[in-house]
Amino acid sequence: MPKARLIDTSKCTACRGCQVACKQWNDLPAVHTTQRGTYQNPPDLSAHTWIDVQFRERPGQWLFRAHTCMHCTEASCEKVCPTGAISHQGEAVIIDENWCIGCGYCVQACPFGVPHKDEELTGTSRKCKFCIDRITNGLEPACAKTCPTNAITFGERADLIAKAEEKVQALRADGHPNATLYGVNELGGLHTLYILTERPSAFGLPEAPQLATSNAVAQWLSGIITAGVVAAVPFWLLFRRKKELSAQQSKVEGGVR
After folding, report:
1. DSSP letter at 200?
2. Among 7, 123, 157, 175, which is least packed, fewest CB within 10 Å?
3. Average of pLDDT values for 169-194?
């Protein structure tokens, strides 16, 4: 049975424990930020921030949402990746940085603004891995494990949906007429689901996210840049293959000696 992560915005207190747990488990460095007149910190996801609690203030109301990868069934990032560096491993959409060439197509394609390039160190795109090293060993993601209010929970997707639908009905009866469950059908079904107290757009989510295709890159980049990237791919792969063969040959020669 497919797994999923459910984020209940009505329970989120913006403690940011999920941010801390994510950085600790994935050994992600802190990022330099400045005061911008908001409690939200850092301002957005980055190559070194894979979950970020967003703050939105309305008259007499705060809206908090832990922003992270949706792990879409139909993932735009996977569709546009020219080297196959992005793939599904079960429910998780994973970027293999060994094969990423840093073209940035996934950054442009994602309707949720999740992947970011590491401009300082690796030059590759990076994002939440759904704690695949934890969930494949029977553990829940670090963000869910640490959440003190159970605003983030992990389990069987069907069970979480049933639970969330009941909660949405309760919220509507309790003065939140726009409460909704987000992610059941979007992009073939998301594996990060949200219970929202307002419409998706109020939380910074697209009302109807669209799947990008490999043809869409021409709309984002000029023909020259696109041609340059595409031309570079086979040469980069050839260089990588030569290095692998050279390493293998060195091992063989070392064994002969």
Report:
1. G
2. 175
3. 98
